[in-house]
Each structure stands twice: as C-alpha cells, then as structure tokens.
Amino acid sequence: MNDAATGTAGVSPAVPTVEPILDVSGVTLQYKTKEHLITATYRVDFQVFPSDRFVLLGPSGCGKSTLLKGVAGYMQPVEGAMKLKGREITEPGPDRVMVFQEFDQLLPWKTVKQNITFALMNGGKCSSRQEADDVAMEYISKVKLERFEDTYPHMLSGGMKQRVAIARGMAMEPDILLMDEPFAALDALTRRQMQEELLQLWDDTKFTVLFVTHSIEEAVIIGSRILILSPHPGQVKAELNAHQLGHSDVGDAEFAQLQEKIHAMIFADRVLEDETLPNV
Amino acid sequence: MSDNAVEIHVRPEFENKNLGKATDVDVERPLSLFERIANINAVRKFSILLGLLFAWEIYTRVSGVEPLLFPSFSESAGALWETILTGEMPTKIWVTIKILLVGYAAGLGCAAILLIWAVMTRVGSDVLGTLTAMFQPLPAISLLPLAMLWFGLGASSLVFVTIHSVLWAVALSTHVGFMGVSETLRMVGRNYGLRGIPYIFKILVPAGFASILIGLKVGWAFAWRTLIGAELVFGALSGSGGLGWMVYEKGENLETTYVFAALFMVIVIGLLVENVFFRNIEMNTINKWGMQR
Amino acid sequence: MSDQSVTSSGVYVRPEFENEIGAAGTGEVERRLSMFERISNIDPLRKFTILIIMVVIWELYARIGEINELMFPTFSATGTALIDALVNAGLLVNVWNSLKLLLSGYAIGISIAAVLVILAVGSRIGSDLLTTLTAMLNPLPAIALLPMAMLWFGLGPGAIIFTLLHSIIWPVALNTHSGFQSVSETLRMVGGNYGLKGLRYIFKILVPAAFPSILTGLRIGWAYAWRTLIAAELVFGGQVVDTSGQLGAEGSNSGGLGWIIFESQMENQTPYVFAGLFMVILVGITVENGFFRNIEEKTVRKWGMQKA
Ligand SMILES: Nc1ncnc2c1ncn2[C@@H]1O[C@H](COP(=O)(O)OP(=O)(O)OP(=O)(O)O)[C@@H](O)[C@H]1O
Ligand SMILES: [Mg+2]
Questions:
Q1: N or C: which end of chain B has fewer CB within 10 A?
Q2: What DSSP element (H or E) covers A23?
Q3: Other CB atoms within 10 Å distance of the CB of residue C253
Q4: Which residue of A lies nearest to C196 if distances are taken between CA atoms?
Q5: Do C50 and B123 touch (CB under 8 A)?
Q6: Per the domain annotation, does A100 fall within a domain?
Q7: What is the pLDDT of residues A201-239, one digit of tens each?
Q8: Is C274 within the bounds of a domain?
Q9: Do A107 and C187 touch (CB under 8 A)?
C-alpha cells in the first residue's frame, strides 16, 4: 500500500478539518420476530472518514450484517443515530450502495451491462442512456468483464457475479460502499484475486468502503481501520489501524502480530465464559 | 485526491477494556400478548372474514336492495341451514361428489396407463405428448354435447367429461415431472437394480412428486369446474340433481337465497379439498422431503 | 515396481512428467449420426407422424366399423364439415365473437387483479384481505355464478363478462401476490438501494422478480376463462331453446363457438360438432404456443429463472 506519509499516526486525533462521512453514535438495533424481540447490537459508536477501508469484524451473530442494514437504511435504530454527511439516515438510497454476499443480488432479467445502467438511471446518477452506457462500460472493464457485458447473470460464475455487483456498486459512486462478506461464498483462489482487485480499484478511485468479514486475515489485508465487535449483542470492543498492511505483508512479523492481537481480543470472551461457567 | 498524504485519515487506536455485560437491555424478550395474537395468521384472516360478512349484512339491510336480486347473509345462511335439515342439500352434495370421485379415479387410472407406456417406450412418450398437446387445451365441457349423444342424459355423460378434464392435466404434469427427474437419481435407481414398474413407483413418482401434485391439484380444479358447469348445462336440458343443477334450478325459480346457499356449499367443498386434503398430502410428502421451499 | 523406487515409508515414487497437449492425434472425436437416426430425432416430425397415424386409424375405424355418422363421423366428413362451416357458415365470425368476449374479459380481469395486488403490497391488512378473498372465491367455479349473473345483468354479454372476470381475477391475483411474497430479501434490498419506491418499485423489481409466478397465474386465468366461456355459451344455448334469447337468435350469426357446438348438436349435425371442437382446440393451441410460450421464451427462460 502507498501510505508512506502516514508515519505520524496515532498521537493527535487528526487534522481538525477532516469530517467523518458516516457517524454512528450509540446505535441499538433490534429485530421483532413472531414471538420475540431480539437485540442485535447495543449502543455501538464508530466513525468512518473519507477513503477509509473500514472493516467490521466479530464473531458470527454479533450483529455485523445488522449494522450494515442499519447504515443502508433498511432498519431504524431504537436508540442512537446514524448520520451520513451530517444528515440522519431514514431510508435506503443510492448514496449508500450495498454489495451482498448472496449471488442472487443481480437482477436476473437484466444483462450484466443493463444491471449497471438500470442502477445508474434509477439511482439518478445518469439521465441519458448513452451516458449510463459509457459509465457502465468503464466499470465493467475495471472488473475485467468486457466479454460478458451482454450475458445474463445465470450464465456467470459466482466470482463473476460478485465482480458485477462490485462494479455496479462503484459505478454508482456512492458516498460509502457497503460490503457484507462479499467474498465469503467464493473459493480461496478467487477470493484472493478479488481482494487484490478491490485494493487495486481503491488505489484508482479511493472510494470509502464499509466492509464486513469474519476472516481476521481478510480484515487485515483489506482494512485500513478495523472495528472489533463483542459477541451477541454486538458492542464495540476496539478499533485498530491496519492501513500499513496488505497482501504483500502476509507472513510478516507485524502482520502476524496484529492478527494475533485481534485473535486474542475476539476469543477473550470465550475464555471468560469458560471460566465463569463452572461457578454458575 | 492526487496527494497521497491525505488519502487516509489516520487516528489513534483504542480498546474498550471494561466492556460490561449489556445488562440494562433486553437481549431477547417475548412480545406482548396482543402483538403475539395479531401475529397469528388464522386469527387475522378470520376477523377479516367476519368483517366482510358483517359488511354484506349491513349493506343489504341499509340499502334495501331487492332480496330477489341480492339476499342478505343471514337469509342465505338460513336457507343453507334449512336445506341441510330437510336433507335436500346432503342428497345433492352426495350426487355431485359421487360422480366427481368416480370420474377423478377413472381419470387417474387412464393417466397412469398412458404414463407407464410413455416411460417404457419412446413411441408411448410421443403418443402421450401429442394427445396431451391436443386435448389439454380442449375444455372438457365442450365435449358434453357429444357425451350426451354417446351416453345419453345420465350420470355416465358427466363421468365422461370429468375423466377428460382430469386425465390430460395429470398426464401432462406427471410426464413433465418424470422428465425433470435428475440423471443422478435415475442412475441411483438403476444401481439398485430397479426396472419397469418398480422403477417408476419407487424412483420416478417420489422424485417427480412436486410436479405430480400440481397435476393432481390442477386436475381437481378443472374437474370441479367442469362438473358444476356440466350440471348447469344438464339443468338447462333435463333434471339431474347435483349441486350445479341446484344452482341453476333455484336461479330459474328466482329462489335467490337458495342459490346463495348452494354457492356456499360449493365454496366449502372447494376449500376442504384444497386446504385440508391437498395441504395434508403436501405436508406429508414434498414439504417433509424438503422438495419445496 | 522396482525395489529402489519404494521409499522407506512405503510410497511408490515415480518420475514426474508433463504432456504436450494436442501434439498427438486424437481418435474419432465427432461423427454424424445416420440419416434415419437424425430424422427420427426430430421431435415435431415424430409427433406429426403419430398424428397422421391416429387420423388414419380414426378414418378406418369409422368406415370399416360402419359407425353411424350421427354418432361418430369419419375424419373426412369432419374435414368437409369444417371447410363448409368456414367458407359458407362463417365459423370464423363465431370464433371472433367468442374471442372478443374473452379478450375484453381478460383485459378487465387482469387490471382489477393488478389493482387488488398493488393495494395488498402496501399494507398487512390489504394483504390479509386479498388472501382471504382469494382463498374464498378461487375454489368457486365461475360458471356457478352464471345464473346470478343472468339475474343481475340479463341474458347477454354482460352476464358472460361478469362470470369471465370472476374466473380470471382470483387465480391471477393469487399467483401474483404469492409471487411477490417470495421475492428474495436480497433483491428487495437491492431495489431499495436504487431509491425505488411505490409503483416504480413494484413494476421494476417485484413484477420481473415474480414473473414465473405471474405467468402461471395468467395461464391458469386464461384456461379457466376459456372453459367458462365455452360452458356459458352452452348454457345460453340451452336457454335459447326455451326462451329464444338474443345470443344466437335465428338467422343472425352472433353466437360464439360454444353456442355453435350446441346448436349443431341440437340439429343432429355431428360432423359440425366435431368441426367446432376442432376450432376450440386450434384456438387453445394457438394461445398456448403462440402467446404464452413466446412470452416465456422471451422472459423467464432467457433470464434463467426457469429451466427449459
Ligand atoms: N431477520 C432476523 N430476525 C430476527 N433476528 C435476526 C434476524 N437477522 C438476524 N437476527 C439476529 O440478530 C443477531 C445478529 O445477526 P447478524 O446477521 O447481524 O449477525 P452477523 O454478525 O452478520 O453474523 P454472521 O457473521 O454469521 O453473518 C443474531 O443473533 C441473529 O439471531
Ligand atoms: Mg452476516
């Protein structure tokens, strides 16, 4: 990663002129099922700044997807507030585009290109067909799918579908790109390739992304900043820097150290629970 | 963003050391009684039904519409109760149901024979394909005039059209189901040494059951519609007393409340067959086997 | 297996190698089947042959069995009757009369169903109301409403259209609504992400996503409507005998296909009954293959939502 100028990290809380893009403060999110009320996250605070690769990391069921759904506007918090560029989030909109883990997120009745132009035209990014076509082609070539622009999604492989979804998300140039374990359903080789491509794309455009994963390694590679959540109901446990580490550092001492640190934090609770169990 | 130096806003790390248990919040709590009752589908739908009936009753009373044209709910329900007590309704129901059952069973038998032939040989499959393509689009009721010519004005004409309405729907759907059985399952069956009829009933039928059930349902729906329609047409010609004929006869005599009573019964029987009979089969087969979401 | 190459751990170690693919010749990779095999693999051809064989059997049976033409006419008699009816008796006019009613009923019915479903998407009470209504009214054969419809609208097209509407609205609404309900959560969220709301959300996301289900509803609606129409015309035929109502009044040609079948039957012209039935089949096949198959091909098949 090209981050030579970030050596002063950590001492003073940054240059005062930098405003967070996304400000989540004291957010509690709850689900209502047919019989129960379930608290998924509890009073979570975090701030995402421009060009952050902000990773949400935590054990399964701790409410990562729920937080993302909240930011996307699909769920309203029962307490606390989420602000995007200072405005409260109340409903879904094209300024926060979501990339899902599921392969069925592409509209099956549109070709690869149409999927992107449809998003552009309906999301209000482009007003003319021609313009939308051009933007779509630009991003299709960014994810290296030029040969498949007129193919329907059911004829693509899982990795290709994910690439289309990412291209669609980036083409809309949202204030923040939300990704919920976008690579989790891919095989290891494809996943690694997609991670590299994502970082390359980031080098190109420096978009802001909020990324959910439960792989510690992926978090360290992808993330510039990592938020660690406690087990259900999710609460903020720590926020760590990882901007200095990328693919090329896998296996380095620093990389391993950070991985180890995160590992310890996530499993601290496990140990705690084990210890308290006999007493109860 | 040309300047690399301001790409990322680096800020200090922090760790929340004393993360207490989230005790001052319900991690999980049951909903209130009212919320839970309102979540029961059956309760909500039943209240809506009551509301609709109530609106009907009020409408007929307040608007003073001619009972001959549109009787109130209470009058219709009264007529239904009366015909049940006098035994008129049960007799009519039995006449219709008897023909329906005979026709449905015979239709299934014919379909089974055709299907077995179709599975065994390519000629059979082609014959079945051609026949269903031809007769599936032909409304069974349009054969009624011919049936009356061939079998006279009796129950056998009704059975004939009922068979016709069941046969093609079931044959088509089952055939499609058989053809959709995956190559893997077929090979597994062969692997067990199954051939001929056992192969059909032990592998193809269960594997294609989702499709077969659709065929059975469509066949029932067509048969029910055809039979009621046929009884109406019969009513127009002679007297042969099933439910459809009752609808027609009472309509002719302007006994509108009894028409509504008969319509109630038609709906009730339809609901019973669809929601009790077929739902039960569905639960015990494809739902249990996870073949349907 | 030479002794030296077995390692101490018992593994048989053999030299590595790499092949140059494509250097060596291959065997028979692909061979055309014989002419006969290829012809008998053409599906329509085989079915057509079977059709011809069946027609021949029919003709022979009716001739050799010396069946009374009144009971079961020969194929040739049916063919002659069909041509005669088409050329001299204006059978196409009758077909058109039926189709006109059917199409207007279909169009109105679909619009009403659409309105109902759109109202149901908005709220839970709307959704409950629709499911209760469809559950009640879908099992009621539309034709059973004909006597009431004749009472309300008189003996004419109004009554028939009313019954047709009933046969179309419920299956279309039922299937569309359940199709909407099973649209995946992911696709719904994607739609919300584009900022689509209200009608635009319904027509741009829900409708295409639920299209297989909607198409099924349209097909069932058509099948019920077609059957109801023929039955209704038969009942009117019965009415004509005792009330000589307007539908098929003597001399005019205003009746539909069902009425023609009924009338030919009454006049003991069995070949013409067969000719009428033949037209009914033809209309059915045209609608299925010309219309629905085409839509299916252009939508759900192309989008990979339904396997071939
Ligand atoms: N639709 C729902 N209805 C009710 N409860 C839900 C629903 N979705 C999630 N939950 C609950 O909310 C909690 C958080 O779920 P969430 O999906 O956000 O977890 P996650 O961190 O994304 O887990 P994973 O890593 O497995 O994806 C879980 O305890 C889960 O049981
Ligand atoms: Mg998740």
A1: C
A2: strand A22-32
A3: 13
A4: A122
A5: yes
A6: no
A7: 888 888 899 999 988 989 999 988 899 988 878 888 888
A8: yes
A9: yes
